[in-house]
């Protein structure tokens, strides 16, 4: 089967829970292997068969193009925390059909996730029945809000995000997108499988202050909910009540300096869904 170094490759790939064979299907081959873009589909199985070919190890990156593009999404993994759960995200990816079973010509994996798994956006239907019924789903979110100049700010680490805290940040008028980095990042909460309700988020008065005193239309945060646990729903109600704000949650902000960037955040077009995983990146 695998030579020693190839075993290492297969092992590290499976540890990432993104089977190497899936890469062939989702077109990420160029990303994972560099040039050439599409190495011998089928003819050169990714793991274990071909002897001593120069198969490079898949590259895992948080930055691209020499640091110009910064990935601020969390990669999906089984021990990624989920709201109010101790279980993480088990079994989110399953190889449903495989050549190993004999009958199929390719591998097909299945996803099983909540719409609020990992880095994701909330649509107004998340907390409002009337918006849910009226169809204010993630497919209705404005791409002009989800993409554009954004400011990454550090929140004082000794408090949840209250009106006073927001006022102290002096975010200039005209800023439309802000990513709030908090104690959650220092505590590496997104790297702990068990949900931790002591995370930092907006208090209701903080959310209201933001609506009343700023031009912010996109709020990003570094754990699973934009609202602090004890005021989770009230904070969401304020942000989504008039459909004024797009909420982006569970961003990975640990390797990025505070400052101004161009944000690109692209949720899936899940019509009917009140949330969606999103790929979010910053461009310098
Ligand atoms: C093989 O087929 C069985 C029965 O259809 C299925 O349950 C299993 O998940 C398949 N395994 C793989 C790796 O495709
Ligand atoms: C599909 O996955 C199996 C492992 O179950 C692997 O042996 C096989 O080479 C894969 N087939 C393709 C076409 O990638
Ligand atoms: C933020 O609020 C949560 C409860 O929602 C609390 O457990 C936590 O200690 C607070 N964090 C800070 C830094 O005050």
From TrEMBL:
It holds the Pfam family Cyclase. Its main location: secreted. This is Cyclase family protein. GO terms for molecular function: arylformamidase activity. It comes from Lolium multiflorum (Italian ryegrass). GO terms for biological process: L-tryptophan catabolic process to kynurenine. Belongs to the Cyclase 1 superfamily. The keyword Secreted applies. Residues 1-34 form the signal peptide. InterPro entries: KFase/CYL, KFase_sf. Keywords: Extracellular matrix, Secreted, Signal, Stress response. The keyword Nucleotide-binding does not apply. It is found in: Secreted, Extracellular space, Extracellular matrix.
């Amino acid at each position: 089967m695998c030579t020693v170094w190839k075993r290492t490759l297969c092992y590290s790939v499976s540890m990432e829970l993104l089977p190497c064979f899936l890469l062939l299907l989702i077109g990420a081959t160029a990303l994972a292997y560099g040039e050439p873009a599409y190495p011998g589909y089928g003819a050169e199985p990714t793991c274990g068969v071909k002897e001593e070919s120069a198969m490079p190890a898949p590259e895992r990156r948080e930055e691209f193009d020499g640091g110009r593009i910064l990935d601020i999404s969390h990669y999906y993994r089984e021990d990624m925390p989920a709201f109010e759960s101790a279980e993480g995200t088990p079994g989110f990816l399953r190889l449903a059909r495989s050549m190993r079973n004999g009958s199929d010509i390719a591998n097909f994996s299945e996803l099983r996730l909540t719409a609020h798994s990992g880095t994701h956006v909330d649509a107004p239907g998340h907390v409002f029945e009337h918006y849910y019924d009226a169809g204010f789903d993630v497919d209705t979110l404005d791409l002009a809000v989800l993409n554009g100049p954004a400011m990454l700010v550090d929140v004082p680490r000794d408090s949840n995000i209250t009106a006073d805290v927001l006022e102290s940040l002096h975010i200039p008028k005209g800023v439309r997108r802000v990513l709030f980095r908090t104690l959650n990042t220092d505590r590496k909460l997104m790297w702990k499988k068990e949900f931790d309700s002591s995370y930092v988020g907006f208090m209701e008065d903080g959310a209201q202050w933001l609506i009343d005193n700023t031009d912010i239309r996109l709020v990003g945060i570094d754990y699973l909910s934009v609202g602090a646990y004890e005021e989770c729903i009230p904070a969401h109600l304020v942000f989504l009540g008039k459909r004024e704000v797009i909420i982006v949650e569970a961003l990975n902000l640990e390797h990025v300096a505070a400052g101004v960037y161009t944000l690109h955040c692209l949720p899936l077009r899940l019509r009917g869904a009140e949330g969606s995983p999103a790929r979010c990146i910053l461009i310098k």
